[in-house]
Amino acid sequence: MERRKALKWSLIGGGAGVGALTLGLGGTVAYFYNKAEVDTVGKVDFDSPLAIPPLAESEEDSSGARVFNLDIQSGETAFKSGPATRTWGINGTYLGPTIRAKRGEEVAFRVVNSLDESTSIHWHGMHLPAVMDGGPHQEVEPGGDWAPQWTINQQAATLWYHPHPHGRTAEHIYKGLSGMFIIDDDESEALGLPSEYGVDDVPMIVQDRKFDDGNQLDDSGAFLSSQGVLGDEILVNGTLGPYFEVSSRLVRLRLLNASNSRLYNFGFSDDRTFSLVATDGGLMPEAWETDRIELSPGERAEIVVAFEPGEAVTLRSYPIEEGYVFGLGRFNGADDRFGICRFQVANSLADETEIPAAMGTAPDLDGAEVAEERSFSLSGTSINGEKMAMDRIDFGVREGTVEVWEVSNHDGYMHNFHVHDVQYQVLTVDGDTPPPHLRGWKDTVRLVPQREYRIAMRFSDYTDPNLPYMYHCHLLTHEDAGMMGQFVVLGEDEEIGTVPEVSTVHDHS
Ligand code: C2O
Ligand code: CU
Ligand code: CU
User: For ligand 1, what atom is nearest to the CA of residue 472?
Assistant: First the structure.
């Protein structure tokens, strides 16, 4: 144990670490170093049709709200031959239905927790009142229910939902609790982008998992990894080794990294280019053509891919190109390569959609009047040296104002940064204009170590002096360990209040 710790620290030193790695501790580390790399390219059969999560059904209630029923339950899922895997799901045994709603609509949920422990459902990327946010202050007791309701008040985007019980988010997501939440609006519908769900507009919930000999999910952390569990097999929408039958020339893929800690660098087996059309918060002002897109946990990207009749091509994940000190990347999955999903293309293709020259509106917070600047330094499992406390509100922001936050990762490990309630604009990265994939609206951004990210966001509409929103690292073991803070949005005359006592606070220290 002692030695393992020392080794970890020596690795952080980068150059010095490499020295220790190759000279001092040679044999053992070299063994684990080689063993740590996962490469499934060419080894996946792709013989299962990609599951498409069903669209959630809804009914209109007397007030005109669309009501969705979500039942959180445990069950068994057959991912592979042999014993079934014990999993959790929403209205099913693994993952949940895709919720789809339109801007301006009032949505209501009847969330029932049929598990034998408390959990919550958080709407990642959603602009909504704090009391509906589904964070650690809105846990649902076993056997209990929860009925959040709000009006969809943001542009078309690919969001998602997942549990957020403090200290147990990693475990709950790993067992299978996640789903996609798609928002539509008039502007996006008028664009002519591929939009037939499951046909040319395809959700792809990407998760790595590790199975033990009995086919059960293994969430133990990888050797020398600072990121917790790293799986060696990839599920897309809960399907191992998926293929998808393409029937139109252009296909939109809604990529969601719903993994606990793994980063992906998506690209195709023939290195073809594709168009990034939307980031976390909605459509890009214009499509960006690229052959790779990196996503850290929690991030989404909508890409449009063009296919040729009769061909087959595989979506892969390639090594992460930057941000890991040599040696550390290997133990955190950065060198891994995966076959993700095979696309089998029909001999004749529908061709009715297009990628328009102009799509969304560009983020416009650059140059806005800034009410407050704050800085956040992430290192270890703390933010600004502090760990999350359920009863501590870290600061209050004023409704209607724009703030600029300077966020940086001050250690050699990987982190990212997610803020609830808002979509933000990345103004600069180390003082420079951000790369194209960070120029749209974002709610989660990877923090390359030692780099400084300035992000701007406007807080609007909903205030609550007592109930906070979260900001945190979305590598789930870090979040659970306390790499999270809380802020409230205050109305004009409001002061920071007191977090109401919750009955379901769990101490996992
Ligand atoms: Cu994906 Cu605090 O959430
Ligand atoms: Cu969130
Ligand atoms: Cu982190």
Answer: 2
Residue 275 in any domain: the answer is yes
**Does any ligand 1 atom lie closer than 6 A to the CB of residue 172?**
no
Instruction: Going from the first residue of the chain to its last (509 residues), give the mean pLDDT of each consecutive group of 10, the final group possibly shorter.
Output: 36 42 63 85 96 98 96 98 98 98 98 98 98 97 97 98 98 98 97 98 98 96 86 98 98 98 98 98 97 98 98 97 81 94 98 94 95 98 98 98 97 95 98 97 96 98 98 98 98 95 50
Residue 309 belongs to a domain: yes
Tokens 């073991």 found at:
477
Distance CA(11)–CA(16), nearest Å, equals 7
CA of 419 relative to ligand 2 center, distance in Å? 6
Atom of ligand 1 nearest to the CA of 484: 2
CA of 255 to the centre of ligand 1 (A): 17
Q: Which of 303, 321, 306, 315 is nearest to 270 (CA)?
A: 315
Say how many domains are in the chain.
4
- Residues 339, 390 within the same domain: no
Name the pTM for this structure: 0.93
Structure tokens at 135: 């964070």
Contact between residue 389 and residue 442 where contact means Cβ atoms under 8 Å apart = no
Task: State which residues form the domain around 179.
Answer: 53-189
Query: Residue 72 is part of a domain; what is its CATH number?
Result: 2.60.40.420
Residue nearest to atom 3 of ligand 1 (CA): 124
Please indicate, yes or no, whether residues 10 and 60 belong to a single structural domain of this protein.
no
- Final residue in a domain of this structure, among 289, 314, 347: 347
Contact assessment for residue 250 and residue 119, using Cβ atoms and an 8 Å cutoff:
no
Q: How close is the Cα of 485 to the center of ligand 3, in Å?
A: 13
Cα of 218 to ligand 1 centre, how many Å? Answer: 22
Is 292 inside a domain boundary? yes
